[in-house]
Specification:
By secondary structure, the chain is an alpha/beta fold. It contains 7 helices and 11 strands. It has helices at 17-30, 56-70, 88-94, 125-134, 139-145, 148-167, 178-188, and strands at 3-7, 35-40, 75-77, 96-98, 102-107, 110-115, 192-195, 202-208, 211-217, 225-230, 235-240. The strands form 2 sheets. It has a 6-stranded mixed β-sheet. The longest helix has 20 residues, at 148-167.
């Protein structure tokens, strides 16, 4: 039975070898002749300061993903708020096909919207201001002209501010809003949406002007593995141990 896999929010980093190990185990166990495609919906890396900075881990990840792509299985990538600077150089190295932040796909006959999902967290005004700046045409280009040591410093400080800011915010502020979800369904005229970002894996059901719609939220990999398997007949969120 053919299948398509979706993952997001792995936050891969050298400081969490358990997550890296779980990811490589996931590839070994799930990538086979039945796989039609692998979609990575953002925050694949804990942080990304530019394609010119590579580590043993990022190179190993690239090697594994390139092997999948070379076997005839496409690997698609949508940027998240942690790794929006992933560019064409790393995409070529790893065989990734970079997609628009909001992309429509035909998922076994169902028109489906895939995205990272952070733009639907509209109550978090502080973050939305940063998102608007970081996705502008000039800010990424400016950052990539800076030396690596400076980008590392900026990224570290930004992460510290983000952690402190999240501690002071109510959980609902960090989640998507129903209004943004409904507006997104209407804008793209779909009945199935798949996204990550919120770290709240669940299948949600919505009513869009009388039409039933489904929204599948992918899980993060901080305490467990998490992925979505879609076939022509089923859509199943699966969780595994990090060990």
């Amino acid at each position: 039975m053919n299948k398509t896999l979706f993952i997001s929010d792995l936050h891969l980093t050298e400081s969490r070898p358990d997550i890296s190990k779980a990811f490589f185990n996931f590839l070994n166990n799930q990538v086979n002749d039945e796989l039609d495609a692998l979609y990575i919906l953002g925050d694949f890396f804990e942080i990304w300061i530019g394609d010119d900075y590579q580590t043993a881990l990022t190179l190993k990840i690239a090697e594994n993903l390139k092997a999948i792509n070379d076997s005839g299985i496409p690997v698609y990538f949508i940027h998240g708020n942690r790794d929006f600077l992933v560019g064409n150089k790393y995409a070529e190295l790893s065989g990734l096909q970079l997609l628009d932040e909001r992309t429509i796909i035909d998922l076994y006959g169902t028109k489906t919207l895939i995205l990272h999902g952070d733009e639907m967290c509209t109550q978090d005004l502080e973050y939305q201001k940063f998102r608007q700046k970081s996705r502008s045409w000039w800010w990424p280009k400016l950052m990539l002209t800076m030396p690596l040591f400076y980008r590392k410093s900026v990224a570290k400080k930004a992460r510290e501010r983000s952690k402190a800011s999240q501690m002071d915010k109510a959980p609902e502020i960090l989640d998507v809003t129903n209004e943004a979800v409904i507006d997104t369904f209407k804008k793209y005229q779909t009945t199935l949406m798949i996204h990550g970002h919120t770290h709240r894996p669940k299948v949600h059901f919505h009513n869009i002007d009388g039409t039933p719609a489904k929204r599948i939220v992918l899980g993060d990999w901080y305490t467990q593995g998490s992925y979505l398997v879609v076939t022509k007949e089923t859509q199943e969120l699966i969780f595994t141990d990090l060990e």
